[in-house]
Amino acid sequence: MSGETIQITYREAVRAAIREALDRDPRVFLMGEDVGRYGGCYAVSQGLYDDYGPARIRDTPLSECGFTGAGIGAALGGMWPIVEIMTVNFSLLALDQIVNNAATIRHMSGGQFHVPVVIRMATGAGKQLAAQHSHSLETWYAHVPGLKVAAPATLEDARGMLWTALTDPDPVILFEHVMLYNRAGTLAADASAVPITGAAVRRAGTDVSLITYGGCLFKTLEAAAQLAAADIAAEVIDLRSLRPLDDATLMASVAKTHRAVIIDEGWRSGSLAAEVSARIMEQAFWELDAPVGRVCSAEVPIPYPKHLEDAAVPQVPAIVAAAKATLGQ
Amino acid sequence: MTDAHPPDNTPQAHKLHLSRTHALHLLREMLRIRAFEERCAELYTAEKIRGFLHLYSGEEAIAVGIMQGLAPTDAVVATYREHGHALARGLPMDRLMAEMYGKETGVSRGRGGSMHLFDAERRFYGGSAIVGAGIPLAVGLALADRMQARTQVTACFFGEGAVAEGAFHESLNLAALWQLPVLFVCENNRYAMGTALERSESETDIARKAAGYQMPAVALDGMDVIAVEAAAREAIAEIRNGGGPRFLECRTYRFRAHSMFDPQLYRDKAEVAQWKQQGPIVRFRRWLEAAGMLDADTAGQLDAEIAQALAAAVDFAEGSDWEPVADLTRDVAG
């Protein structure tokens, strides 16, 4: 560590990670809709086409099933593809390839084949893109054995998870929340690979564990700051990895705070929050001083107008209220 | 294809220089597949083999013919009706039978069964039980070969039912757009499970459909092993020379039910009987006999060899162990 830092956005951090991967290994290539000449629908891959050419920054037709399947096939054939899918909503067109092929082939072949593909996709609401571009379906993928699922929320993770995911022999899905792309901050100039498993304590506290991931991390940190002003010391845990879940870090936190609220932009029913809550019940029930709380999205398709979109997804006041409720306030 | 009757032309031997040794090899390969599957059907009735069992009977000429053109380093993506592809690709019969039983010594450790046969050594990327879902994988395997400057070809098998899937169209478009080394092999047996081609496709000429993606596509008699081999060799040579993907529509017929649960209410017994008269094995055998390449002694010897190999395969499967339950979650991420 040189101690030197740089100013960078989340978008630039992801781009730097892609560049590093392309430079480090000839097996790496990026493919997806408009990743090349257009520069990526969220401008993540801007400039890469000129630097690496059309073979390694590969524009695809609007064929999510076809090109995701081709990425899985290329991984079987010895490449390390990075497949970009514009949004998680579009990934449903590729769900068959991801769930029935990528996730099954290693186990079903008796361990003969590996699928070292990385699939990146944008997720979440906040840009008024309405009900077919704004959902958070991370938990659908986190349900599936054979996949690893991670949600980089910080600049360090945006910069560092990709290389680790590529070197992993199994398929890894990386979720990038659309509201994070413009977030700017400082990052170590020599920032590099970080683990894709394991949760991180982003703020230490003793009164309540606020467990979240992805786009809700910064709302949760803001809520924790407001709680601190009311003399409530909230601990904020960033799941980072949605599959596998880091039970040990979660239970250690609950054992300390005795209260937990899970903040998840997915819909409440069958959510990742439900899974985390169930695990706390199973593994730390006797530590709890209050029922586990959840702050999730309203059970509606995400609407277009700003006031309704805001109302549909977790916001700071709801997180503060849920945390206080576990303390009887 | 609109004709309701099987073709009755003689094998297209003129397209290849056919030695007796090679001719007998082709016959042996088809007989091996037929015998293996007939035994599998018996073992299914005996409840040694469970789950789904989709038999290839009637279609053997396609797998056998295509495999003749492939090098050991080429890749194969098969379907859920894949015993023929696996045997013709050289997967060992004993380990295939063990897989049918679900035994640990099977080609997929017993975890896949009939529909999911894998073999890394022979670049056999398994049967997909999602119709059409193997086609994008084949495109990706070919992309990997292209990007790594290798001259391998990927042969991708699928039935005519897959032609209705989006994955088929997306994959053909990608392969043609990127000029990838894929041999697409459509095994058109006229019925997608129980739905006849003309009841599911607005355009029943599948080769024509493929040609719409700007790739050379031909339809041929898929019950003529020589015609299939000739077409495969020609197409594979073109692909290997950088000519981009090729498409073969092999017109064939499935003699047995779709699976072991199919009462075949959707077709007449007479239709099946008529096609059986023109089956790939009976036709080729007739032709070999007429050409003086097959006598009763040789035929008897072939049958005996196959019966012996099959008996050994069943013994191997019977004598093999089940994968320990402790290994249930071995080789799964997350």
Question: What would you note in describing this structure?
Answer:
- The complex is a heterodimer of chains A (329) and B (334).
- By secondary structure, chain A is α/β, with parallel strands linked by helices.
- Chain A has helices at residues 10-24, 48-52, 64-76, 88-91, 95-102, 105-108, 138-142, 155-167, 217-229, 247-257, 272-284, 306-312, 316-326, and strands at residues 5-9, 28-32, 57-59, 80-87, 118-123, 148-150, 172-177, 184-188, 200-203, 208-212, 234-238, 241-243, 260-267, 293-297.
- Chain A folds into two domains: 5-188, Rossmann fold (3-Layer(aba) Sandwich); 200-326, 3-Layer(aba) Sandwich (Rossmann fold).
- Chain A is built from 13 helices and 14 strands.
- In chain A, the strands form three sheets. A seven-stranded mixed sheet of chain A has the order 3-2-4-5-7-6-12, with helices on both faces.
- The longest helix of chain A has 15 residues, at 10-24.
- With 334 residues, chain B is an alpha/beta fold.
- Chain B has one domain: Thiamin diphosphate (ThDP)-binding fold, Pyr/PP domains (Rossmann fold, 3-Layer(aba) Sandwich).
- Chain B is built from eleven helices and eight strands.
- In chain B, the strands form two sheets. Chain B has a six-stranded parallel sheet, with helices on both faces. Chain B has a two-stranded antiparallel ribbon with strand order 5-6.
- In chain B, helix 6 links the parallel strand 3 (154-159) and strand 4 (182-188).
- Chain B starts with 19 loop residues before the first helix and ends in a 15-residue tail after the last helix.
- Chain A binds chain B through residues 27, 29, 55, 60-61, 63, 65-79, 81, 96-97, 100-101, 105-113, 144-149, 168-171, 243-244, and chain B through 75, 106-112, 116, 118-120, 125-126, 128, 130, 133, 135-145, 147-148, 166-167, 170-171, 173-174, 177, 329-334.
